[in-house]
Specification:
alpha/beta, seven-stranded parallel beta sheet, NAD(P)-bd_dom_sf, SDR_fam, 3-alpha-(Or 20-beta)-hydroxysteroid dehydrogenase, EC 1.1.1.53
Length: 246
Amino acid sequence: MKLQNKVAIITGAAQGMGAMHARKFVEEGAKVVITDINLEAAQKLADELGQNAIALKLNVSKADNWKEVVEKTEEKFGPVTVLVNNAGIGIFKPLEELTEEDFRLTFEIDELGVFLGMKTVVPSMKKANGGSIVNISSVDGLVSAPTAIAYSASKHAVTGMTKGAAAELGQFNIRVNSVHPGVIESPMAEQGDVAEIIKKLEQDIPLRRRAKTEEVSNLVIYLASDDSSYSTGSQFVVDGGMISDL
């Protein structure tokens, strides 16, 4: 029960990696707010997880929606002590084919959403005398790759924002870290051309496989828990050695 008495908001938690975070958090004793743009799927998961989970609709790019989610979390469970900024989108196209719309959408979800989440939970975490913010970035937030310009731009921004927020919020006992997954078993990894690209990438991963979602969740749990009480402003890579030679 590493997360006993923790109150966590997890974004993009209706499916894939976010859903696994939610399941594991409840198993570890946390009270979890499952947020997603797809409320129906989020509610289905919350019903499955029981009384320690609720579902709320959240468009991470909307400040008013964030405010509403934090208020409802406090009403139900008390002040927020953990935020997992997991919601994300990946649009992978060659530069000449990447549209302004693609770039703006990626920015709004992957970058602006993280900024708004951090900004909005800080007053609640101050009430709790501390907290942990875990921003899900990517190995593309440390390096980059062809066709990943929009995605990498936002994920690099998450890395930078994490460091800045950690430096600013440490005085309030609020820790901020980023997690950088490599190739993960998730619905996003099975879409169209991405699936073919990933099959090729796996051949170059030292562990010769993609990660299971729970392998990422275990790291997120560590960062959300008091076990990581002296870790902040850091990048935690979970990529099977994918970028170890870069």
